[in-house]
Amino acid sequence: MSSSVKNPTSFRRFALSALPEFWMFQLLASLFLFPLSRLVWRFVRALTAKSGALTSSNYLRFLASWRAPVLLVLLFLLVMLYLLFELLAPIFLCNALLSGKQLRYRTALLDGLRSLRKFASPRGLLFLFYLAVLTPLTGVGFHISLTKKLYIPNFISEVIDTTPLYFLLYLLLMAVLFWLGYRMLFFLHAAILESRTPGAAFRRSSELVTSNRLRIAKELLPLLLFLAFIRLLAQGLFKFLPALVLIAREEKLLRGAATLTTGTDLLLSAESRAELLYRFAAAFAVLLGNYLLSMVSLLCSSYFLLRFTRLFLLLAREQAPEEQPLPKSPRRTFLLAAMGGSLFFTAFLSFVLSFLYAPLFAREQHTKLIAHRTGGYLAPENSVAGIVAAENAGAYGSETDVQRTSDGYYVINHDDNFKRLAGVNRTPQSMTFLEVRGLTLTDPHFPTEPYPVATLSDLLDACRGKEKLFIELKGVTADKKMADDVVRIVREKNMVSEVVIISLSYRVINYVETHYPEFDTGVLFFAGVGNLPKLNCDILLLEEESVSNARIAEAHAAGKQIGVWTVNDSNGLSRFLDSEVDYIITDDIRLAKETEQDLLARTPYGVFEDRLGNFWDFMFF
């Protein structure tokens, strides 16, 4: 018997025989899912056309309308389609491979489509919710790319991390979800390969997991370590090694050609032709490297699914099935030619980009830095000292949080109460102004610098003529009265052009923009769908994971500005400082300034790596 029959699921054989088939299926799935997703989002925009968009700042009214169930149905159908193309059909393809059958995409899709009916039930809907929402949070189990970036917003995770009770409850919840994900390891396979109902599939999966813990660990742990090594090796070969070669030669190649800007100029001299060659090599290394890394990722994930499916069949049948060699694809020549064609496309695209480098990638940094809670990490939060520190560090402005006392004064505090900073478990609206002014605050990051609660007037005076103040109308007192009073206070100080009024409440910002159009306004939200620029405000302030180049372009095309909050890590700062975002709210002004300098010092290779690193996302999920 040949070695391929003795070990039909070997990694080498799978890579040579089956990877081109999975590559083609991935391409076909992408060509179907991405246009379909855009069509669904167009329907979503139409549903939210009355208010412009559905966001975390205005969702209550939408949920009470007929549009909410229609939106849920659309999202349900979209999740079902992603489940079909990314999990169900690939499982049927793996099952066909293990049976020694030729891969037929149409058959796998039809089998998957018939299996979808199982999830149109209460228990099936619970599974879809788990798959789309909970799996991305726990990282246990199979997931779909539609929601793989789902996460807990930073401002919520910050509260969890700093509150012991919330942190304990969070750990408990994650432990429960982890346990549930472990028990559901074979849920999908039991549901579709054994034609079980969702309830029966869960019981079947639990039974297999419980009675085969050691065998599952012996099979999957070495496999996961091996695939992790393959990915690490690919990173070294396709990313780090080309980077080292280019970085070692770039200083010589760039010398004397740094001021050339157009494709024609690049052909005038030997030095400029060397610059052109370097740009081509840099673009090709980035595009090809990331393409090959995506291919390796597809290889590893597909191979894992094959081995996982084989493990399920072994455990489910309680005896080893007759091993079949992986069949040779009759389309192998065509598929290899198509994969090779993608390499020629990469080379051609790199050639074009080398000529158009300046007009496409030269970008002036215009993003303005806003210090979170007046000074971020530079000074105690929401203090006058923070305003001064932010200005000295080069920030364009500061952000602060205003709340109303029981007797109508406006004081500065981020939390709902003063427990964290003053040890007093009372809210601003339950205290008089004199009681609030009698408090002494201590920021945990500056324990030797106690300070009083600032007022809105204190911060306005500190900002006058120096920097912009983003005033967030905060908490339960963020209402029309607060809006009217803040407008009056700012007008009395003749500082209308020096402030921006922002809030998590769209109702309040809509009121300010409608009645006081001379003020700049901004809506804060961490999630939103629909035509966001239609919101009645001047600045859209999104949580960092909600920002995309498409949303930035859409906002600017509508005459709106766009900001992002709260960005505190170097990767996020680099990403947004290298984009067309107008404002970045951050706690770390110093790091933001250092990141600005690093971006200015980049060579073309660094620019290509930053701008083209996600180029193949449209094809590889």
Topology record:
Layout: H1 3-6, H2 11-17, H3 19-47, E1 53-55, H4 59-63, H5 67-98, H6 105-115, H7 122-138, H8 154-162, H9 164-183, H10 187-193, H11 198-211, H12 213-254, H13 270-317, H14 332-355, H15 357-361, E2 368-371, H16 384-392, E3 397-404, E4 410-412, H17 419-422, H18 433-437, E5 440-441, E6 451-452, H19 456-463, E7 468-473, H20 480-492, E8 499-503, H21 506-515, E9 520-525, E10 528-530, E11 539-543, H22 549-557, E12 561-565, H23 570-577, E13 583-586, H24 589-600, H25 604-612
User: Could you give the order of strands across the largest sheet?
Assistant: 2-3-7-8-9-11-12-13
Rounded to the nearest angstrom, the distance between the terminal CA atoms is 38 Å
Proportion of helical residues:
55-70%
- Overall, the morphology is globular
Main beta-sheet annotation = 8 strands, parallel, barrel
Percentage of residues in DSSP E strands:
5-15%
Number of strands: 13
Radius of gyration: 28 Å
Q: Which stretches are low in confidence, meaning pLDDT under 50 for 5 or more residues running?
A: 1-6, 256-261
What is the residue-mean pLDDT, rounded to a whole number? 86
Report the total helices.
Answer: 25
- The assigned structural class equals alpha/beta
